[in-house]
């Protein structure tokens, strides 16, 4: 019996060793995408979450213009589809929270949606013509050089295709990072156009984090170019020094969301994070400038 157990242990160890060797031989470097080369090289990037929803009506042209004016490096936005399938920039699946209307975004045509007041809950901007913009309008309103993170909120192949089509039409393949909480959306984007940058989905972050814990990040091939993660997930810390270092070792951009407290910003910057996703880009610009790299 002891001999059988010994042989079983040898077989298991050999198999595990073979698996590690196989991973080491097949692990590939992460490509250097132009999106990340365009970011500041002397400090962490400030990514205006929904355009800076703590300062302006979120996901509006007014917010995006304001975020750029105060020094944000990247505009982050969310996309849903209208009744006719037009990608529009809004976070929720309904219009209730951010406009003076009610109902699901997909129940409105673009024309109907843009009759709503997207600044209804901002007294100083109410009834001043602030609307829910289409993604086309956002691309038309800003030069191609403006970096954007576009999160596709729905698991809808037609919407994903429409977003990719717009990125291609406006020749923004080098300045747009597409993201989603839906793994199938990320996979569709990567299949549609290999030139597009994506972040890692949850199912891709977990094995990378596990590899980092064992100082084995070199054995893992990240399928995307960025990690956009919360500081912690429940009781589990995510943005640790080890994970940040592992990402840097593999050439993966590491940004943390959604951070609005200046002290927390400074702590994360001290760990080496490369981006702060925030509703308060004004505070983040100051913190990132002070911290440098």
Automatic annotation (TrEMBL):
Residues 44-288 form the GP-PDE domain. It holds the Pfam family GDPD. GO terms for biological process: lipid metabolic process. GO terms for molecular function: phosphoric diester hydrolase activity. It comes from the Bacteria. This is Glycerophosphoryl diester phosphodiesterase. It comes from Alkalispirochaeta americana.
């Amino acid at each position: 019996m002891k001999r059988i157990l010994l042989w079983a242990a040898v077989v298991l160890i050999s198999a595990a060793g073979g698996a590690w060797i196989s991973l080491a031989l097949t692990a590939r470097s992460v490509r250097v995408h132009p999106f990340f080369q365009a970011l500041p090289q002397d400090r962490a990037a400030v990514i205006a979450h929904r355009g800076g929803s703590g300062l302006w009506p979120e996901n509006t042209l007014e917010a995006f213009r304001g975020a750029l004016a105060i020094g944000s490096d990247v505009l982050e936005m969310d996309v849903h589809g209208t009744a006719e399938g037009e990608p529009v920039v809004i976070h929720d699946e309904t219009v209730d929270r951010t406009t003076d209307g009610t109902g699901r975004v997909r129940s409105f045509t673009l024309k109907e949606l843009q009759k709503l007041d997207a600044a209804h809950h901002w007294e100083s901007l109410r009834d001043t013509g602030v609307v829910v913009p289409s993604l086309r309008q956002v691309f038309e309103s800003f030069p191609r050089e403006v970096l954007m993170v576009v999160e596709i909120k729905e698991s809808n192949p037609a919407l994903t295709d429409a977003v990719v089509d717009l990125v291609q039409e406006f020749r923004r393949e080098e300045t747009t990072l597409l993201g989603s909480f839906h793994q199938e959306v990320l996979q569709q984007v990567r299949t549609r156009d290999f030139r597009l940058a994506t972040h890692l989905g949850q199912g891709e972050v977990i094995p990378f984090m596990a590899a980092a814990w064992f100082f084995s990040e070199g054995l893992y091939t990240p399928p995307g170019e960025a990690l956009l993660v919360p500081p912690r997930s429940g009781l589990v810390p995510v943005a640790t020094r080890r994970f940040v270092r592992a990402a840097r070792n593999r050439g993966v951009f590491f940004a943390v969301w959604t951070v609005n407290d200046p002290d927390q910003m400074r702590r994360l910057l001290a760990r080496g994070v490369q981006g702060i996703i925030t509703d308060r880009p004004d505070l983040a610009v100051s913190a990132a400038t002070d911290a440098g790299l």
